[in-house]
Amino acid sequence: MTQQPNNPLHGLTLQTIVEQLLAHYGWDALADRINIRCFKDNPSVKSSLTFLRKTPWARKEVEDLYARTFR
Predict the structure, then answer these.
(1) What is 14-69's CATH topology?
(2) Which residues contact residue 33 at a Cβ distance below 8 angstroms, ignoring those fewer than 6 apart?
(3) Residue ranges per domain, the chain?
(4) Measured between alpha carbons, how far is 41 from 5 in angstroms, rounded to an integer?
(5) What is the pLDDT of residues 20-70, one digit of tens each?
(6) pTM of the prediction?
């Protein structure tokens, strides 16, 4: 396993990232920060993960918000 000391996301799963952002912001504030439908229209962790795994630009936005929020 390669060490990545400068990568704040190293060792985190996408599910952990979404769940921690959700606990910190809630769905409404998360949707305000990242304008994607899976956070606005009947949101759930499962549907969000499905969308984010298929949509690289949205996943990057979520990962960037996580990095800014939990430095």
Answers:
(1) 1.10.720
(2) 25, 65
(3) 14-69
(4) 36
(5) 999 999 999 999 999 999 999 999 999 999 999 999 999 999 999 999 998
(6) 0.85
